[in-house]
Design brief:
Keywords: ATP-binding, Cell membrane, Ion transport, Iron, Iron transport, Membrane, Nucleotide-binding, Transport. This protein is α/β, with parallel strands linked by helices. The chain contains nine helices and twelve strands. The chain has helices at residues 43-50, 73-77, 95-100, 115-128, 143-156, 173-188, 200-206, 224-227, 230-237; strands at 5-14, 17-27, 32-36, 58-63, 66-67, 80-83, 161-165, 192-196, 209-214, 217-222, 241-245, 252-256. Helix 4 packs antiparallel against helix 5 (143-156). It starts with a strand and ends in a 5-residue tail after the last strand.
Amino acid sequence: MTARLTAREITLRHGDRVVSTGLSLDVPDGAFTAIVGPNACGKSTLLRALVRLLRPTAGHVHLDGRDVGRYPPKALAKQLGFLPQDPQAPEDIKVRQLVRRGRFPHQPLLALWSQGDEEAVADAMAAAGVADLAERPVQQLSGGQRQRVWMAMVLAQRTPCLLLDEPTSFLDITHQYQLLGLLAGLRDEGRTVIAVLHDINQACRFADHLVAMKDGRVVAEGAPADIVDAALIKDVFDLPSVIIPDPVTATPMVVPTLQGE
């Protein structure tokens, strides 16, 4: 396994609270990595550290063997596309204008908007299913529509690596599976995808590499078929379950066995 993006023995804090200590992770290239775990276990914090929005107080995050803190902002943004959990759009901005911002890392000083930029924006909007919303103000859209617009902006960056924090939030089930299928397709094209997901069964179905976190540490990682069993689900989520093959993909499917049912 090769890994351009790595974390080595990092300590992460929110103010005075230590979230993770000595956390290490290799993100496999050209794979779909899903990060799962209970609320407040450090998933989003780890993602923010990987894209340099949160600096470790110890340890290092490296991209191609170089500390991410040493990259100029535009250079890093050409490599890592990031969708946070709750992005905020400027007031009155329209959909096409927001998606066009994904091309900012590729714009030299005083450069004119190119045909390549226009194609990247059009392709991203089509892939995210928001082309028909191009002239709508973002603030007038539903939560699910806004989520897809933000996804289009990240796609317009055309980065080799995408990091997405709960990208299926606010989406109905159809759009959830469409988005996850889109991400799997990007993986198949050779791009690296890292996503925080809440649905363990969706993670098992679409991801090649699963990272299970608890209390700020990685407790298991690997192919879903290799690591997902009832003991792991009980340990990570405190949920009794049985694991059966997904009838469509044969990947692990978690079926809760709560008392009283």
